[in-house]
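Re: that backbone. Tokens:
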């Protein structure tokens, strides 16, 4: 069954590439991935890319064009290809796609390294290498707009949020809001642990001062049960993550890196690449690690075993060391590092033991990151309310920043 699914995905991928390549050939009048220099010249003439391209000579652009590897389009998943076709690839003012995936990656590498003075072409080539091999994935904003003359930052709809001291919490929890973000103070979790009480305050707009706030005392455990019973709850144990939510997340695709290349080299190139993006855009970039599950499977380690936690801790320490060494040697400030978002990716509901191990995996990684990760806990027939409460208490005590209940 798995082989049949992989065959279907490969067929779909080939069909998408066939459509993309045919459109490019018809528009250009030549085979795909030929004439990179002419493409860049057209992009400039049409005003689609910035004046920074003039910092590269014609011979440099021609040489970089020869380094493009068309076969690396085969490494893109169906979802990635669809995103390239709908968002990332450059289109003209008639909405015709005039670029190809590997050309877009090379242009991103060129834009990031535009201000490099020493060995610039090698640095561009290195950046293209980690991007085209899929060792690194960049934020959608970067993939869509970086290097171009226009940039519209993707804005997310502000989530529905409420502080746990707000007297409207019970009504908020029972509402039809699909995703309820709730700030949970440490004091509340301590009161739950102590079987104590909790104060809710009337925060209506007509209240003119904090002294006039109406207080209501409730059971902390009772309120916790309401949280656990509600649908679409996302608990935030710290507001630090929201204060830095404007940072863009790039990902080290660990499973590909471990299988195919040297982790230290990827970290070194990544530091320089993100530094170049920040210099041009003045946006902060964060580093996260993706692909833990696949990497652990390739190591023939049980995902929910202590060996998996040990492996994550060891690998996280190694990644952190490589990033810090690369930043120190290049004199570049190291970007913020954030732990991963962990959830059950199996088709079957996660048991209590498996969800405890998920929290342990987040905890092992975030010992070596600036910001904690998040975990998605499942409510199911396998998990009683008291056990779910234990899981939540463990996540909080381990420093996990965000817990989503599904």
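Recovered sequence:
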């Amino acid at each position: 069954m798995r082989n049949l699914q992989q065959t279907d995905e490969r067929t779909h991928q080939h069909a998408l590439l066939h459509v993309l390549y045919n459109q490019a050939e018809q528009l250009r009048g030549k085979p795909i991935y030929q004439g990179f220099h002419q493409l860049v010249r057209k992009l400039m003439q049409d005003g689609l890319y910035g004046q920074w391209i003039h910092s590269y000579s014609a011979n440099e652009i021609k040489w970089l064009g020869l380094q493009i590897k068309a076969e690396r389009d085969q490494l893109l998943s169906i979802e990635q290809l669809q995103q390239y076709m709908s968002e990332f690839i450059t289109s003209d003012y008639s909405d015709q796609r005039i670029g190809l995936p590997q050309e877009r990656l090379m242009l991103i590498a060129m834009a990031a390294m535009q201000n490099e003075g020493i060995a610039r072409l090698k640095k561009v080539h290195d950046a293209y290498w980690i991007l085209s091999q899929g060792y690194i994935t960049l934020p959608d904003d970067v993939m869509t707009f970086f290097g171009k003359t226009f940039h519209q930052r993707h804005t997310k709809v502000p989530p529905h949020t409420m502080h746990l001291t707000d007297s409207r919490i019970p009504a908020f929890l029972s509402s039809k809001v699909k995703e309820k973000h709730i700030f949970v103070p440490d004091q509340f979790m301590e009161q739950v642990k102590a079987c104590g009480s909790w104060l809710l305050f009337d925060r209506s707009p007509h209240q003119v001062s904090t002294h006039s706030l109406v207080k209501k005392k409730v059971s902390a455990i009772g309120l916790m049960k309401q949280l656990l019973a509600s649908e679409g709850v996302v608990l935030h144990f710290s507001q630090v993550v929201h204060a830095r939510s404007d940072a863009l997340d790039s990902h080290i695709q660990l499973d590909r890196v471990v299988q195919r290349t040297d982790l230290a080299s990827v970290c070194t190139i990544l530091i320089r690449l993100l530094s170049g993006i920040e210099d041009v855009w003045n946006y902060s970039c964060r580093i996260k690690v993706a692909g833990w599950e696949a990497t652990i499977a390739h190591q023939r380690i049980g995902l929910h075993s202590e060996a998996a936690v040990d492996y994550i801790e060891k690998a996280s320490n190694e990644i952190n060391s490589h990033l810090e060494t690369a930043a120190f040697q290049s004199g570049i400030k190291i970007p913020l590092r954030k732990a991963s978002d962990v959830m059950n990716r199996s088709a079957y509901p996660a048991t209590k033991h498996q969800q405890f191990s998920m929290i342990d995996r987040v905890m092992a990684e975030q010992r070596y990151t600036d910001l904690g990760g998040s975990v998605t806990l499942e409510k199911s027939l396998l998990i009683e309310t008291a056990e779910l409460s234990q899981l939540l208490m463990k996540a909080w005590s381990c420093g996990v920043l965000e817990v989503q209940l599904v």
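Residues 2-117 form one domain. The first strand starts at residue 136 and ends at 137.
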